[in-house]
Design goal:
Layout: H1 2-22, H2 28-43, H3 53-67, H4 73-83, H5 85-105, E1 111-119, E2 122-130, H6 133-137, H7 139-204, H8 210-244, H9 250-254
Antiparallel strand pairs: 1-2
Helix pairs in contact: 2-5, 2-7, 3-4, 4-7, 5-7, 7-8
Length: 274
């Protein structure tokens, strides 16, 4: 009778442990969902995981679609979220933190021991199943600590998300504004060049003084200097935008920007509505 009951007593705890372990499932998408929801709700942009070839291909298609037309501020934010490797690393880190949390939900592995005792012609088989009692007692505290660690990591990645989006939007505004100032500087130079040319002809005809001609030429020199400074500023701000939205290779030359910033809205919402 005892020989038939022994296997049952050994198998039951093992099945119980396996059953409880199966309840703790690991899902990287679930760990990243709070940050992705924050991206959708606060920024109006997606932050997709790019773990598989299909996910990376979808992100590439989104990038191509955004670059197919002049990039607006919202598009700049979306490109930054798609291409920022630090954010993807943060999402991977959430999966690792969630894996550690799930590990604390598992029961400690039991230790099965078998022994054989020989006494003369008698042989006795000893069987044992052991659990780490200290591990069981500290299981709840470890679960709480792992859950708090996951929450902290989600908050950190969420803050990183806002920083990346803010930098992308700010860089876009600066790049478009610099491009607009560059166009204005070219217009001023054309006007100054025409004025200097007219003053020269009138001086040759004796209709203006040498001082008037010198003034027109000074205005032209200032306009040329302003254009050079505007070109440097526009180039630097465009490069800063390219870095902020994570473009490289052929995408750098594909990027186009609108000619001017959008108009300031005239109907501001009340503070209570924000």
């Amino acid at each position: 009778m005892s020989s038939t009951m022994t296997p049952l007593r050994l198998t039951l705890p093992v099945l119980l442990a396996l059953g409880l372990s199966a309840c703790a499932s690991l899902s990287p998408e679930q760990a990243a969902e709070p940050v992705q929801r924050q991206s959708r709700d606060w920024l109006g942009s997606d932050l997709p995981l790019q773990r598989t070839d299909d996910q990376r291909a979808a992100a590439r298609a989104r990038t191509d679609a955004l670059l197919a037309r002049p990039l607006d501020a919202q598009g700049a934010v979306q490109l930054a979220l798609l291409n920022h490797r630090g954010l993807q690393a943060g999402l991977y880190g959430l999966g690792m933190a969630d894996a550690e949390r799930v590990q604390t939900l598992l029961w400690p592995n039991p230790v099965l021991s078998l022994g054989r005792l020989v006494r003369g012609d008698e042989r006795e088989i000893e069987r044992g199943l052991e659990f780490n009692l200290l591990s069981l007692l500290g299981r709840g505290a470890r679960q709480d600590a792992a859950a708090q660690a996951l929450a902290r990591e989600q908050a950190r990645v969420g803050q990183q998300l806002l920083d990346v989006a803010s930098q992308a939007r700010r860089s876009w505004v600066q790049a478009v504004a610099a491009q607009e100032r560059l166009q204005q500087a070219r217009t001023v130079l054309d006007s100054a060049s025409a004025g200097a040319e007219l003053a020269l002809r009138m001086r040759q005809a004796g209709n203006v003084s040498a001082l008037r001609l010198a003034r027109e030429r000074a205005v032209l020199a200032e306009a040329q200097l302003a254009l050079e400074q505007a070109e440097l500023q526009a180039t630097g701000d465009r490069e800063a935008l390219i870095r902020a939205i994570g473009l490289w290779g052929d995408d750098v030359t594909t990027l186009t920007l609108p000619e001017r910033l959008p108009d300031v809205p005239t109907d501001f919402r009340a503070a209570d509505d924000l």
